Amino acid sequence: MKIVGNVPLAIIVPAFRTQYLEEALESITNQTNQNFNLYVFDDASDEPIGEIVEKFQARQTLTYHRFAENLGGQSLPRHWMRCVERTTEPWIWLFSDDDVMEAHCVEAFFQEFEATEDKYDLYRFNTRCIDNKSRIVSTNDPYPMEEWGRDFLMVRLLEERGSTFQELIFSRQAWKLIGGFPDYPLAWAVDDVFISKMSENKPIRSIRSARINWRLSGINITSVTTTSVFRRKIIASGLFIEWVNQFLAEGTSRKKFTSKELNAMTEAWFFRWLYFMRTRLGLTICLQVDQFASQVWGYPRGYGWIRCLVWNCRLILEAIRRKILRIQR
């Protein structure tokens, strides 16, 4: 594989869809600091990834590789692993095919890196959420300048803040030491595990002078509300909760949590993301949630079902209220 000079940063785009790929690549091409190697890895997509990449090859030195096998459909983390393993740079930015970076993001990273070299293994940008038309939906409050992994995890369990993979630049050496990415279905909660583990020995360092625009498009994994996707997210949630219980229960100089405290936190986290979709929960999902609540937290059968039923009733009442308001206008 062609490596362009002695460059410390790899920007990796695991591409599968073309709808926003051109916009994502445009934002990378427009970086004020070009001291990086760009890689676009085509996950055996049926869409014309290569044709879009060709438009940028005259403007940007990049490496394009099309895999013969679609691995992301089976395991996104394993697909990410094979993408990272085909690169050699000491710092890695695993971006996406639908998000957008501000023009001075790379420059901001190197400025922060030069000021803090060897002190951190993980850097992150603040984010904005954009919709399918690139309109800004929300802007996150600035992250702390430094944050340890366990503190980050506690904030995530309480759902006080979001997180995405696309906002992270991480050390290859540290990535290898923690064993890469955990293999959860749909890569659900993988970023939370990854960030927590990467920042156990060195805190996360925030880059405040640039932002990432993270897209909630309606077609990405976060947005999709089909039964099959819900079911895989619930399976991933079980793996995540099992890991959280072990991670937070391990003996450290920091606070130890009782089983009751861990159950309360993980239950709150689970139902928050379930309700975040703002969609009614079908019979199949309600049954799976009920079984999940019994197996994971020891509730009697029917508890999870009642939680889902209450949520569905709430959505129905909200819909009725909105309809009445429209009629009154």
Count of distinct structural domains = 2
Count of DSSP strands: 10
Whole-number mean pLDDT: 91
CATH superfamily of the largest domain: Spore Coat Polysaccharide Biosynthesis Protein SpsA, Chain A
Distance between the termini: 63 Å
CATH architecture of the largest domain: Alpha-Beta Complex
Order of helices and strands: EHEHEHEEHEEEHEHHEHHHH
Low-confidence stretches: 1-5
Question: What is the overall number of helices?
Answer: 11
- By CATH, the topology of the largest domain is Spore Coat Polysaccharide Biosynthesis Protein SpsA, Chain A
**What would CATH call the class of the largest domain?**
Alpha Beta
Describe the structure.
This protein has 329 residues and is an alpha/beta fold. The protein has two domains: 9-215, Spore Coat Polysaccharide Biosynthesis Protein SpsA, Chain A (Alpha-Beta Complex), CATH 3.90.550.10; 227-328, no CATH class. The protein contains eleven helices and ten strands. The protein has helices spanning 21-29, 49-57, 76-85, 105-116, 149-157, 172-177, 190-198, 227-249, 259-276, 283-297, 303-328; strands at residues 9-15, 37-42, 62-66, 91-94, 100-101, 122-130, 136-139, 146-147, 168-171, 204-215. Strands 1, 2, 3, 4, 5, 6, 7, 8, 9 and 10 form a ten-stranded mixed β-sheet that branches. Strand 1 (9-15), helix 1 (21-29) and strand 2 form a beta-alpha-beta unit. Helix 1 packs parallel to helix 2 (49-57), helix 5 packs antiparallel against helix 7 and helix 8 (227-249) packs parallel to helix 10. The longest helix has 26 residues, at 303-328. It is globular. The model is unreliable at 1-5 (pLDDT under 50).
